[in-house]
């Protein structure tokens, strides 16, 4: 029977048996092709990792030259040969240290010219001491000179330049310009004290250490870090004193920086003067306070002592400075000796250097400050 004559149900069954499934040609190839493609991609990635050495996994990268660390102990800080042309100009380049202020630690390097028996090691570094045989830093580091006892009545003037060491270039210029009989006092705050003090001592200058002491208007008028203060436990003030004393060596004594309140207090100043006496150091009073107990305390503790007669550059101009130096000469003729103190201003340095060149013609001798200080240990 033909399909046209067969019942409708039988016709549908025969057609179903004869024709392939309607979805067979479309679904089976697509799934298998997709699976095969994914497998090929995974195999390709695996082969790329094995063959190509790219530990960064394709991340963007750049190559930067590693610069060898510079020697910060050298005077110039970063060496140009080490840093390369871009080190000083690139946006992330380290700051180049100024040549006049190389970094150094709180305790400066050992000074080979220091006498070993006159040095004590502390937690702050080396500080002066009296030797086991009783030899003192004041006696050892004082510049040899005539004294009032040996000058046969010749007038003598000592001049102390204060505030040195903070500006290295200015300090070195002052050392070059001033006669070696001028005494130099260094503040404890410079970053190149080992270099500047070493240069001063190499040129024959006698050196002092400036110690910051509390003035009446502290803290509005502040002499600097580690200022010794009234009303503090003696141990705290002595700790500050030792820290300041460790900044450099080879000094004959200390000179106060301000300190009108502190030097008027026996309870606070007494332990400090006692320590100076035990260590064989001198004390030079800058003469700024008439209430200072330094003369009495120095005598009681056998501390070599002297007092400044005049602040030479209270008016920092050539004319007034020369007038004060003339007054210092007159005092020396009258009393036999006089001590002046001057700051490290360029105009002061230049004027003093000019004045000193003609002093011998006036019959007056420039001597270091220690020559006019009474050594009560001698």
Description:
This protein is an alpha/beta fold and 378 residues long. The protein has a domain at 133-372: Alpha-Beta Barrel (TIM Barrel). The protein is built from 11 helices and 11 strands. Strands 3, 4, 5, 6, 7, 8, 9, 10 and 11 form a 9-stranded parallel beta sheet that branches. The protein has a two-stranded antiparallel ribbon with strand order 1-2. Helix 5 links the parallel strand 3 and strand 4. The chain is elongated and about 125 Å long. Residues 1-28 and 53-109 have low confidence and may be disordered.
Features:
378 residues; alpha/beta; TIM Barrel; 9-stranded parallel β-sheet; 11 helices; elongated; disordered N terminus
Secondary structure topology:
Elements: H1 8-18, H2 24-51, H3 80-83, E1 119-122, E2 125-128, H4 137-141, E3 156-164, H5 168-177, E4 183-186, H6 193-202, E5 207-213, H7 234-245, E6 253-258, H8 266-279, E7 282-285, H9 294-300, E8 305-307, E9 310-311, H10 318-335, E10 337-343, H11 346-357, E11 365-366
Parallel strand pairs: 3-4, 3-10, 3-11, 4-5, 5-6, 6-7, 7-8, 9-10
Antiparallel strand pairs: 1-2
Helix pairs in contact: 5-6, 7-8, 8-9, 10-11
């Amino acid at each position: 029977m033909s399909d046209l004559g067969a019942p409708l149900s039988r016709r549908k069954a025969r057609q179903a048996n004869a024709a392939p499934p309607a979805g067979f040609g479309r679904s089976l190839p697509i799934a298998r092709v997709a699976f095969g493609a994914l497998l090929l991609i995974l195999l390709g990635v695996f082969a790329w990792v094995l063959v190509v050495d790219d530990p960064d996994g394709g991340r963007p990268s750049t190559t930067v030259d590693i610069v060898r660390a510079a020697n910060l102990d050298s005077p110039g800080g970063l060496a140009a040969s080490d840093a390369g042309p871009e080190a000083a100009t690139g946006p992330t380049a380290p700051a180049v240290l100024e040549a006049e202020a190389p970094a150094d630690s709180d305790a400066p390097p050992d000074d080979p010219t220091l006498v070993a028996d006159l040095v004590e090691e502390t937690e702050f570094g080396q500080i002066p001491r009296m030797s086991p045989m009783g030899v003192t830093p004041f006696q050892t580091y004082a510049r040899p000179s005539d004294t009032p006892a040996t000058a046969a009545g010749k007038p003598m003037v000592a001049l102390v330049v204060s505030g040195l060491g903070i500006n290295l270039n200015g300090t070195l210029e002052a050392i070059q310009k001033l006669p070696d009989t001028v005494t130099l006092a260094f503040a404890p705050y410079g970053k190149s004290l080992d270099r500047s003090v070493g240069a001063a001592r190499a040129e024959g200058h006698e050196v002092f250490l400036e110690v910051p002491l509390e003035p009446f208007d502290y803290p509005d008028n502040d002499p600097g870090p580690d200022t010794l203060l009234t009303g503090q436990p003696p141990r705290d003030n002595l700790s500050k004193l030792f820290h300041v004393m460790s900044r450099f060596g080879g000094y004959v004594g200390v000179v106060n920086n301000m300190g009108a309140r502190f030097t008027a207090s026996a309870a606070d100043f007494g332990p400090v003067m006692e320590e100076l006496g035990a260590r064989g150091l001198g004390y030079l009073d800058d003469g700024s306070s008439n209430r200072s107990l330094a003369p009495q305390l120095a005598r009681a503790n056998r501390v070599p002592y002297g007092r400044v007669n005049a602040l030479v550059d209270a008016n920092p101009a050539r004319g007034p400075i020369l007038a004060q130096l003339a007054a210092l000469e007159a005092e020396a003729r009258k009393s036999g000796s006089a001590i002046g103190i001057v700051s490290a201003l360029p105009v002061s340095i230049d004027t003093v250097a000019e004045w000193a060149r003609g002093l011998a013609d006036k019959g007056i001798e420039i001597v270091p400050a220690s020559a006019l200080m009474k050594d009560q240990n001698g």
